[in-house]
Amino acid sequence: MTGPNGPVGHLPDGRASPGGCRCCEKERGDNMLRTLWLLLILVLSVPLAAAAGTGLIIIKSPYSASETLDRFAEAVKSKGMTVFARIDHAKAAASVDQQLRPTEVLIFGNPKIGTLLLQSNQTAGIDLPLKLLAWQDAAGQVWIAYNEPAYLAQRHDISDRTPVVEKSCGLPGCPLTGLEAGAAPAPGS
Question: Using CA atoms, how far apart are residues 84 and 110, in angstroms rounded to an integer?
Answer without folding.
Answer: 10
